[in-house]
Amino acid sequence: MATHTGELIRVQGLTRRYGARAVLDGLDLEIAPGEFVALLGQSGSGKSTLLRALAGLDDDVAGGGTVAVPEQVSVVFQDARLLPWARVLDNVVLGLPRAEQRGRECLAEVGLAGRERAWPNELSGGEQQRVALARSLVREPSLLLADEPFGALDALTRLRMHALLRRLFEQHRPAVLLVTHDVDEAIALADRVLVLGDGRIAAEKRLDGGTSTTEIRAELLRALGVTADL
Amino acid sequence: MTLLAARPSATTGRVRPRRRLAPGRPVPSGFLLGPLLLLGLWAAASASGWLDPRFLSAPWTVVTTAVELAESGRLQDNLLTSVERVALGLAIGIPAGAALALVSGLSRWGEAVIDGPIQIKRAIPSLALMPLLVLWLGIGEVMKVSVIAVGVLVPIYIHTHNGLRTIDSRYVELAETVRLSRAAFIRRVVLPGALPGFLLGLRFAVTTAWLILVVAELINSTSGIGYMMDLARTYGQTDVILVGLVVYGLLGLFSDAAVRLAERRTLSWRRTLAS
Ligand SMILES: Nc1ncnc2c1ncn2[C@@H]1O[C@H](COP(=O)(O)OP(=O)(O)O)[C@@H](O)[C@H]1O
Ligand SMILES: [Mg+2]
C-alpha cells in the first residue's frame, strides 16, 4: 500500500480498525523532508498504530487510505530492541554488508566509541537506546520513526538523549516523526507538534518562535484534555 | 543521630545474637564426602569378609580387574566400539532433529507435516522400537546406531523447535524494519535465538544416547561395554560388571561436561547476566 517518494511524506484518509473500533479514522498528515514532527496523544489514542502504518508493519490490521513514504525508513522502538546474542557493532550494522566502518562512525557519533565489542546487556538503558539510534542512523534514513524512544529512561538520561537526538537530526536532516506522551519533550525537540484525537490530527502547533512556549504548552495540554493551571 | 548510626560494641554484652537459619558455610570439597564415605564402608565390609565377593567384589579387585582388562586390550576395544556407536547415532540424530525443527519452525506447512509424527514418536519410548528395528535391520551395527539416532532426534527436535517458537516476536519485527533477507534472518535471528533450546536438547540427547546404548548392548550384541558386562554376568564376575558401570558413569559425566562447555562457549552473551 505504501508508495515511495523522495520528498514529501503524505498520509491520506488513513483508517485502521481493531475489530469494530476505528482507531484511526480518515487521518491526513504531511511531513516535509527534514522536518521534525512530534506526535502527542493520550494513551490508546492510536499513536503507535499510526507509526506502524508508516513503517509498513501492519499488514495484518484492517483499514484503508494511502501512505506515501520515502524508500529509506528507520524505526526506533521504545525498547532498544537489540539482539542480545549480537555484539553492539553487529547490532548496528545488522543486515548491512560491509558497513563496519560506517557502523563505527555512527557509534562514535552517539558517544559509544570503544564499546563495539560489548554485549547489549552490558550496557545501561540509555546506552542501549543510543545503540538503537546508531542502528537507525547508519541506514541514512529519509524518515526516522520513533515510538516513545525515551519513555523507559530516567529524567536525566532523557534530557541527554534529547540533546543527542536534536544534534543528530541537525547533522543528518531526516524527516522525523517522534511519538511521545510528554508535552515538554515535544516542545523541546520538534518544529511542529501534532495532537492525535478521535482517530485524526486534532490539533497542530508550529514552534517558529511566534508564540511563547508557555502558551503553546497550555494549548497542547488543553487539546490533550488536560486543564492546565499555570 | 550519630548514636543511632554507631554499631553497638560487643563489650556491652547486650547485643542480640543473630539467629542463623541458612545452612551456613559450604563444607570444603563437600560433594566428595558422601561418595568417599560409601567407598570406605564398601572397603571395610569387603576387608572384614562380611561382603561376599560373589555379591559385590572388593574395591581393590575392581581396580586390578580394570588394569587387567586394559592390559589385555579388551577394555579399550569394547570402549571404542561403544563410543563409536554413540558418536554415529549422535552424528545422524542431531542434524536430523535440528533440520526438522528448523523446517517445522519456519513454515506452517512444515509444522503441519512434521510436528504430528514427532509428537507421536515422542509418546513411544525409543527402546520399544527395537523389536521392529531388529526385524528390519537385523541385530548388527546399523540397528544399534538407528535406535540411538531415532532416540536422539526427538529431544533435539522438541527443544530446538520450542526455542524457535519462543523467539521474541519483537525481534522478528525488527528484522522486518531493517529489511533482513530471509537468509540473513535465519542466520542472525533464528539460529542464535534457537541455540539455547538446541543446547538443552543436546544435553538430553547425550543422556538418551548412552541409555539406549546400554540396552542395545545388553541385549543381542557381541561387542561393547554392555556386552562385556553381560558376559561377566553369565560368569558371575561382579568385578567386571563394576568396571563397566564405572566406565558408563565416566562416559556420561564427560559427555555432559562437554555439552556444558559448548554451552558456556556459545552462550557467552548470557554469562554476563549470570555473573
Ligand atoms: N494488536 C491489537 N489488537 C487489538 N487492539 C489493538 C491492537 N493494537 C492496538 N490496539 C488498540 O488500539 C488502540 C490504539 O493503540 P495504540 O496505537 O498502541 O495507542 P497509543 O500508542 O497511542 O498508546 C488501543 O485502544 C489499543 O487497545
Ligand atoms: Mg504506543
TrEMBL record, chain A:
Q: Which InterPro entries match?
A: AAA+_ATPase (IPR003593), ABC_transporter-like_ATP-bd (IPR003439), ABC_transporter-like_CS (IPR017871), ABC_transporter_ATP-bind (IPR050166), P-loop_NTPase (IPR027417)
Show where the ABC transporter domain sits: 9-223
For this protein, the record's SMART domains field holds:
AAA (SM00382)
- Which GO MF terms does the UniProt record name? ATP binding; ATP hydrolysis activity
Keywords of this protein's UniProt record, alphabetized?
Answer: ATP-binding, Cell membrane, Membrane, Nucleotide-binding, Translocase, Transport
- The protein's name is Sulfonate transport system ATP-binding protein
Could you read off the lineage of the organism from its UniProt record? Bacteria, Bacillati, Actinomycetota, Actinomycetes, Streptosporangiales
From TrEMBL, chain B:
Start and end residues of each ABC transmembrane type-1 domain: 75-259
Q: Which residues cross the membrane?
A: 86-106, 127-158, 240-262
Q: Name one GO biological process term.
A: alkanesulfonate transmembrane transport
Pfam families assigned: BPD_transp_1
**Where does it primarily localize?**
membrane
Any idea where this protein resides?
Cell membrane
How is the protein disposed in the membrane? Multi-pass membrane protein
Report the protein name in the record. Sulfonate transport system permease protein
Say which species the protein is native to: Nonomuraea maritima
